[in-house]
Amino acid sequence: MTLMVNGAPRELAPHSTVGALLGSLGIDPRLVVVEHNRLILRDRDLYATRALNDGDVVEIVHFVGGG
Amino acid sequence: MMGMSSRSFISSAVADMATTLEPTLDVSPLVVGGREFRSRLMVGTGKYASNADMVSAIEASGAEVVTVAVRRVDLNRGSEDGILHHLNPNQFFLLANTAGCYNAEDAIRYARLGQAAGFNEWVKLEVIGDTETLLPDTAGLLEATRVLAGEGFKVMAYTNDDLITALRLEDAGAVAVMPLASPIGSGLGMLNPYAIRTVKSRLHVPVIVDAGVGTASDACIVMEQGVDGILMNTGIAAASDPLRMATAMRLAVEGGRLAYLAGRMPRRETAVPSSPLTGMLG
């Protein structure tokens, strides 16, 4: 299945979860915030069970330098 | 002393000096949104040549409130460029901003993302109206302030130096109003001290001047207007030596605050001698 992750298409195995996506990207879940189809996932414990579907839009953000 | 040795000297001297002067003479601490802050200087984390430069400058500034931006993780690089790899959130009060947002909806979305990072419910709210001047869209700013304050956010609203907008932001629930000294990143210093004083005199919430401070004298003059604090980024980050400038800014903010509290002498158009007129030789 194909998802839009941070504005770019990305192939993912069917039935993947948010946790699996972060794992495949090598991202520490504690350092990011994930938005799934415009819904902010505030509880990181749910990453492991939050299912992704074809066509979903995922944004993975973090804090960077800024004023 | 030259090079690195002078830097480390300044760094340790700053650590020794920090907070020895101000608490005794500036007896009322800065309180924003019910929280007390140890420094009236707040600093940004953008535009530093390196993360090491950023951290040393921020430590030298004495700032407690440190602003950060919310951005996409670069998936090609991983999360290593994230600020949390370099700044300890237990050491500083991280204040997420909504920089780069050009409407209320985007700013609200960014504020919620920043909150979800889990540090606090505060936001430095920016709704920008123009790419060239980065001046605020005050209508969008008011709308976003109302929504976020209603959700329980502590909104510190970056705005222009217009009194009416400042009053409306306070009414909308902002815990601090942040008028600009001059445009973001311009380093022009305070363009309208009258407007800044007017805003300060009429608001009940703290007034933190944000943007435009280019050097230590700018910071000092801003604080002499009686405002509650200053937020700056480029003034330190774009200096040739950010560590020295951060130290200068800390001292300037303290100096300006104390001068304000001390109450300056009246200006006169004529000279008045400082030495006695009597007792002169015959």
Word description of this protein:
The complex is a heterodimer of chains A (67) and B (282). Chain A contains one helix and five strands. Chain A has one helix spanning 18-25, and strands at residues 2-5, 8-11, 33-36, 39-40, 57-65. Chain A has a five-stranded mixed beta sheet, with no helix packed on it. Chain B is an alpha/beta fold. In chain B, 39% of the residues lie in helices and 16% in strands. Chain B has ten helices and ten strands. In chain B, strands 8-7-6-5-4-3-10-9 form an eight-stranded parallel beta sheet. In chain B, a hairpin with a 2-residue loop joins strand 1 (30-32) and strand 2 (35-37). At the A-B interface, strand 5 of A face strand 4, strand 5 and helix 4 of B. Strand 5 (57-65) of chain A pairs antiparallel with strand 4 (65-72) of chain B, so a sheet runs across the interface.
Give a quick set of tags describing it:
heterodimer; A: 67 residues; mainly beta; 5-stranded mixed beta sheet; 1 helix; 34% strand; globular; B: 282 residues; alpha/beta; 8-stranded parallel beta sheet; two-stranded antiparallel sheet; 10 helices; 39% helix; disordered N terminus
Number of strands of chain B: 10
**Low-confidence regions of chain B:** 1-9
- Largest beta-sheet characterization of chain B: 8 strands, parallel
Inertia-based shape of chain B? globular
**Overall residue-averaged pLDDT value of chain B:** 91
Order of helices and strands of chain A: EEHEEE
> Order of strands across the widest beta sheet of chain B?
8-7-6-5-4-3-10-9
Helix content of chain B: 25-40%
Instruction: Tell me the number of helical segments of chain A per DSSP (H or I, 4 or more residues long).
Output: 1
CA(first)-CA(last) distance of chain A: 38 Å
Radius of gyration of chain A: 12 Å
Largest interface: A-B, 24 and 37 residues
Work out the strand percent of chain A: 25-35%
Mean pLDDT of chain A: 94
- Which value, in Å, is the CA radius of gyration of chain B? 20 Å
**Helical coverage of chain A, percent range:** 10-25%
Task: Report the count of strand segments of chain A.
Answer: 5
Shape of chain A: globular
